[in-house]
Amino acid sequence: MTTTFEALGLIEPLQRALKAENYTTPTPIQSQAIPLLLDGGDLLGIAQTGTGKTAAFSLPMLQRLAAEDIRPAPRTARALILAPTRELAVQIADSIRAYGRHLNLRHTVILGGVGQNPQVKAMARGVDILVATPGRLLDLVNQKHVDLSGTGLLVLDEADRMLDMGFIRDVRKIVAALPRRRQSLLFSATMPADVARLAHDMLRDPMRVEVTPAATTVDRIRQSVYFVEAAGKQSLLSSLLRDGDLSKVIVFTRTKHRANRVAEQLSKGGTAADAIHGNKSQSARQKALERFRSGDSRVLVATDIAARGIDVDGVTHVINFELPNEPESYVHRIGRTARAGADGAAIAFCDPSERTYLKSIEKLTRVRLTIVGDRPEPAPQVETARRESEPAEAKSAPRRRRRRPRRPAVRRAA
Ligand code: AMP
Questions:
Q1: In which band, very low, low, confident or very high, does the pLDDT at 334 lie, cut at 50, 70 and 90?
Q2: What pLDDT does residue 387 have?
Q3: Do 364 and 331 contact (CB within 8 A), yes or no?
Q4: Which CATH number fits domain 221-372: 3.40.5.10, 3.40.50.300, 3.30.365.10, 3.20.20.105?
Q5: Tens digit of pLDDT for each residue in 3-53?
Q6: Is the dihedral of CA 17, 21, 27, 29 positive or negative?
Q7: Top-level CATH class of 6-210?
Q8: Is the CB of residue 23 below 6 angstroms from any atom belonging to ligand 1?
Q9: Is any ligand 1 atom within 6 A of the Cβ of residue 50?
Q10: Domain ranges for the chain
Q11: Given Cys at both, which of 35, 63, 94, 272 links 297, Cβ 3.0 to 4.6 Å?
């Protein structure tokens, strides 16, 4: 059953803002969560980016704050949204600005990696909504620049990433600084035990809303794999990029160093590309993201952490230059394309050392990637590496013994 934002109970200024954003129909998580949140209930949302979860929590928050005629006291925030990464925090703030443009509410962002003074200054008057990453927020709370004792609304976004990034202790400390009487929401794509415990401690009688875009999104993505030597990946990438259909491409690497190398090589070859990873300054990351979003750069090379929550529409291709060692990361990575109902393609480069990663990915997604080109001869790179590390006499051992049987060249996508 389709519904409308009006039927969900949203006020006219919000409806108008959504119209300007070209949102015509609420997404499933929005239809389920918005009425409950307007009512003041707690929520456990099992959802990842791409489901429309940001609007699902921001819209009722804006409406509830606007309904009360309260001005925030100095250094306080009426509502707090915690996000694991700087990029996600900035994106959430952008959404709040867009959805709340016809309401008279103040918001600000607190994040690490930039000077704290402007943030202290922004908080001096108090804000209606504070979007923050945990580390810096805790610093400012400890320095008494921020007072959360009256913050009645809390959203914890991407709780599983908070856990991955080691923020859970900080999060717990922040939650302890909030009043017990409050509305709390927790979103997470997955529910590891630590996150479930946190949800149990943080939420009161929550409604659980689960949306599973991974499968549906993944279904819409054409997935393929090239078997290639590690040393041949850069030239394979360049040759794929000769096809103009690859117009907005995110390339994933496992390491920051590799991300830099790939972007440099592309730029040298005349393809506009930027790298984005944890060692880049906040402003460099923002700049790279903006260039990519606007189309000034065609390729964004990213590591997993940096790419978390990156929300850029119209990504045509995701290229896994290096396969992730965690299969869940593959699903997150390829979810950058095929957003908001569009089609997308994901191409994996699999070198001999990555075959086990590929197997885990196929097992998790239950999708067999379409093989492009021939399935290669078995792992010469691995063999070379092994032979070099072996004693000299072992080098003469016949290599063929280690070869695995050749598999058929092409399998069909499931
Ligand atoms: P999120 O899951 O919050 O990261 O949102 C994913 C993307 O969907 C963002 O680009 C939003 O702007 C977009 N979006 C959210 N809700 C809607 C909607 N109801 N209709 C169309 N696009 C939406």
A1: confident
A2: 31
A3: yes
A4: 3.40.50.300
A5: 899 999 999 999 999 999 888 888 889 999 999 999 999 999 998 777 889
A6: negative
A7: alpha beta
A8: yes
A9: yes
A10: 6-210, 221-372
A11: 272
